[in-house]
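Support reply, case 0932

Customer input (verbatim):
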Amino acid sequence: MNLGAYSIAAAPLIPWWALWTLAGLISALVALGLWRRAGGTWWRALASFILWLALANPALIEEERENRPDVAVVVVDDSPSQRIGQRRLDADKALAHVEKQLSQLRDVESRVVRVGGNLLGQGAGQGGDAGDGTQLFRALERVLADVPRNRLGGVVMITDGQVHDAPEDGPYRRGTEALGPIHAMITGQRNEGDRRLVVVQAPSYGLVGRKLSMTVRIDDPAGQGATALTMRVDGGETRRIPVPIGRDHEIPFTLEHGGQTVLELMADPGPVELTLDNNRVVVAVNGVRDRLRVLLVSGEPHPGERTWRNLLKADPSVDLVHFTILRPPEKQDGTPIRELSLIAFPIRELFEIKLEEFNLIIFDHYRQRGVLPRTYLGNIADYVNNGGALLEAAGPAFATSLSLYRSPLSAVLPGEPTGAIIEQPFKADLTDLGRRHPVTANLPGSVQPSQQAGQRNRQPEWGRWFRLIDAAARRGNVVMAGAEQKPILILDRVGKGRVAQLMSDQIWLWSRGYEGGGPQAELLRRLAHWLMKEPELEENDLHAVVRGDKIEIFRRSLEPTTAPVTVTAPAGQTNSVELGEEQSGRQTAVMTVEEPGLYHLTDGVRTALAAVGALNPIELADVRATDKRLRPAVDASGGGLSWISDGTLPELRRVRPGRQNQGRDWLGIVANGDYVVTGVKETALLPALVVLALALGTLVAAWRREGR
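Our regenerated output:
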């Protein structure tokens, strides 16, 4: 609407100081004439005033104004908690009512913004990162970015009240200015009940094998006493735990491996439930190993003895105990015992009392000399069966009657010596199985499957060895072979533990750089980590990596397989995924997901877990409808708050600035009256001819009055 506004302005023909000086002189002359009672003084005064006004040049200013409509913002909560019960229907009903009311108001521009979408942040409207919960005020700030304060008529929020960025103790501010009025229309029912499982405290990481604990609490206004909590670790067996309602409860657990361990917790349903999504939580704890304790048992001295010691000592996370035989029993020393300054080596303590404390035991070039009783070797076999790790680096003695295979360790060693020793130049190479096994696959310098297909006789790009202890692999996986395709590296699982046999004592040639050397450091690092059950080196494994709303699926297997992977979503829906072509024993696939939570993957043999989005989103932590979060901002802005479930939707009406903005059944939209000037028209109040006529007329009148 265009309106006119009038005002009077002056554009003096001479400076203002000269104009006011002239006014002073005129006043003085008029006063002098009056004091002397001169005739015609008043006419002269009138003529002088007319001339002074002409110099002041007054004009009538007419502004053409265009009213600017006030902006009313409607913020609609579309978050996942609005899907509960009739909330979404109530919100749509309230939105239609508000839009109709606003369309009937004069000079009001309405803006509607929906906030929410899914918990992955996809389609979240103006709400930003869904992991932060429902962000209505962040969306409001974006909508009002181009709206001046004097054009804001009001804000209407249609929500269940679970707004996670609402001001806690005052009005909503943009910079230093408070904005309002803010009105709220609440969906849902008053005093709703719902059972919630809350993680009060949980570690983000812990030491493998050490006892850890987390604290949980079950909140349930309608429940009393105790309830059962189901706990599952890495998708394995479930465990039932009684937990009191309304009180913190500590749950102990132990990490069994390095890397991420996923703990699923689910509380039994309560008497009143809005959703079961907040009855379960997922806790991810990263397992880290303490200083690794390694027992290195060295036998006969040989050039490669230092290779093992130097490799292990170079790692600051390894606590090495080196048991070496400096003088075998058959070698006599004539030095009297009372003159020897030696400390007895704690053999019994190491091989019986504290054997289970070691993460890895290595036998290097060892042969039976009577130093270690067979009982202790039997303890090591039991140690492996109970979950320990054993690496045997064989020397020539392994082919004799003094071999470790002729001891209780034969029960756990996969390679049986034939008694032959092959001494000729050869290059260690990967077997077909070795190209698929994570310990040896893609070793630097090895022949890749694509290269092997093009050049059948191609050899690895590393140095030669000259000795191999012949052995027959009774079980396990032969991943490296040497001369005459005899086994060099055999890997096996025994009981709960793992065993590796290296059938050559010449890996030290690689560390010395002979003929270019080889990847001894990488090979031994992978070997040690596989023996200690690091998840990334499992040879038959299914795991997933989450990147945004996509799950990347990886499967490694020693045997080719085409079985699809079944993915179960948090809500229970299943999806079958075909994996792509294999490379070095690995298959991959990528799938897009639409909801957060814990996804279960299985191919019928292996299982894996994938945590998508926020594991325990704040959006679902408490889904009860409430007016407590918005009440401070609404009251501070002078707005009104109503529950849609009460049955009557409030009317919207225009109010003047500074007046009350809400009533029992109405909400106010402020009429600010803002405008822009579209044009200006200037009209002189004293045209030159008028001034001349008036001046001459008054002067003539003064002359006639003086002449009487």
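We compared this against your earlier run and they match. Two observations from our side: Residues 292-331+340-431+461-531 form a domain with the Rossmann fold fold (CATH 3.40.50.880). The longest helix spans residues 16-36. Please reopen the case if you see a mismatch on your end.
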